[in-house]
Amino acid sequence: MCGIAGWVSYDTDLTQRQEIADAMTETMACRGPDDRGTWVRRAVALGHRRLAIIDLPGGRQPMSVATPNGEVAMVYSGEAYNFTELREELTKLGHRWETDSDTEVVLHGYLQWGLDVVDHLNGMYAFAIWDERDQKLVMIRDRMGIKPFYYYPTRDGVLFGSEPKAILANPLASKVVDTDGLRELMAFTKQPGWSLWKGMREVDPGTLVTVTREGINTRTYWKLDARPHTDDQETTVGRVRELMTDIVNRQLIADVPRCVLLSGGLDSSAITGLAAARLADEGEQLRTFSVDFFGQEEHFQPDEMRGTPDSPYIRDVAKLVGSAHQDVMLNPSELTDPEVRRAVLRARDIPAGLGDMDTSLYLLFKAIRGESTVALSGESADEVFGGYRWFHDEAAVNADTFPWLAFSTSLMDNRESVLDPGLAAKLDLKSYVADQYRAAVAEVDQLDGESARESRMRTISHLHLTRFVRQLLDRKDRMSMAVGLEVRVPFCDHRLVEYVYNAPWALKTFDGREKSLLRHATKHVLPASVRDRVKSPYPSTQDPGYAVALQQQAKEVLAQHDNPVFQVVGKAWLQSATETDPAAITPLQRAGLDRALDLHHWFDLYRPELQLD
Questions:
Q1: Are the CB atoms for 469 and 497 separated by under 8 Å?
Q2: pLDDT tens digit string along 248-263?
């Protein structure tokens, strides 16, 4: 796991621009605290920051191989979980090795198969290969978009990086945000290829981008296809169990301490149970970590999204599997600390406005990093197996928009109220969301003969796996890599995603519950309490002191009458939110305060130029 950066320029001698390549690379230091390296030739500069996970003394990057017709060099971020099998296959084909790293295996895979190397990889990855033989750069991203990857076309080439900050460190990149960038920031639809920054694009998941002197070309190498599912219920459950066991076993491979993020929900508990069983066979005790807030369990109040606190279920799982468990306890002062908020913004590069759900995740990962370097997480199980409440809400399912936007909660209603009224009219988010929804639905392949119900649920699943989950994966990666922690996501293994995606909806809910297949496939490693638990989202503090602190900080922003944040945030709205009785603050107001404060600090950190035409 690492951070990568690079620059291709066919008309400039980049050996004279080493300091810029170094600056781009150093923005990725948080992603790779263990080592750094650059590889510079006339037309290309590659930069790498390393977080050592496999083959700690070896695996240094950039990594290159000399061929009779020129060098082939690579910078790589991620993990190839099947690198052992690929190494054996390539050895039989005549390849020889200088390290034990998966990086070298991937590079030799490219030498053997060219662009078809993508068909051989199982893992999470974003990597760039410069092929001197034909003066070509190839950028490749994993199928589900677990690892971030951005690029910025220039007059004579391209800039690229794991994160936008690497690209923005090059003077060729402009820090401009236009109305299109702001629309997606506020809309929550995850437009493919979107970056907040004008001129910058994200390498789409399952895509490879090729750069030559003639220009830039993209090719999709993987997408969700509709295929008949012929397995019966028992066979399907058995196959899910088999896949889950294999995936977790593969993703536990590391030469550094490992752990599991345990929330007490079905998803993380299933991974915990499988991981504990595997490590027990090796004579090792699993470590688990959870986030909680002081006083949350004692004073918990059910709300429209969370019916129960997590703690009792976490204790049940830890007791059953015998894990060494640690709760990371947080208080409102930590969650509202402006410096923590700024750290989150630097990690994400965007003012996401998720408040304590971002700051608590950052603080959790920071605490874990003191004990472990690799953590397994339950991200994307709800998208794969159909766990969110709106999957089971007929109004949301049948709405002519994204179901997560249609699901009725006080938090989702009128989310643009925080915006300056003039800007809100200019953005016209309603039309933007409608356009994005139509584009997303048009990408769904359907099976002939499928019922209207099954067809609709396939569409709902597709929207989540190609739109919704990508936002969560980006958040998880940025928060973890900001502190040098590698988070692995077993539920994103493409074999599992493909198999479960094509299972009929009736089979995914065969016991009348959400995530029936996962529940039954992993019941042998779960306590009864978790098997019966209703879906509960990532926790959020209920301490009233949180809203009070937000109001006070917002008042300080209001005192700065020329603050650039008021180009986006409505001053009247913010004034009203600060004057509301803290006991009467609504979830929408609290979220709006977090959004406004994120924007305030983001303007200060990034100094963007807004083009609001």
A1: no
A2: 999 999 888 999 999 9
The residue behind tokens 């170094």 is 22
Residue environment code for 307-318, b if the CB has 16+ CB neighbours within 10 A, otherwise e = eebbbebbbbbb
User: pLDDT, tens digit, for every residue of 269-291?
Assistant: 999 999 999 999 999 999 999 99
Residue 568 phi, psi dihedral angles, 5° rounding? -120, -45
438: CATH: 3.40.50.620
Domain boundary among 476, 511, 531: 531
* Domain that residue 88 falls in: 2-220
Query: HEC profile for 468-483?
Result: HHHHHHHHHHHHHHCC
295 contacts: CB under 8 Å, gap ≥ 6:
543
Whether 601 is in a domain gets the answer: no
Residues 604, 607, 610, CA angle at the centre, nearest 5°? 120
Supply the residues annotated as catalytic.
2
Q: Is this prediction's pTM over 0.90?
A: yes
Q: pLDDT tens digit string along 78-125?
A: 999 999 999 999 999 999 999 989 999 999 999 999 999 999 999 999
Identify the CATH number of the domain in which residue 150 sits. 3.60.20.10
Write out the two tokens for 285: 């005790």
Are 238 and 215 found together in one domain?
Answer: no
Residues 172 and 311 in one domain: no
When divided into structural domains, the chain yields a total of 2
> Does the pLDDT at position 613 exceed 90?
no
Q: Which residues pair with 212 in a beta bridge?
A: 215
Burial of 535 (0-12, 13-18, 19+ CB in 10 A): buried
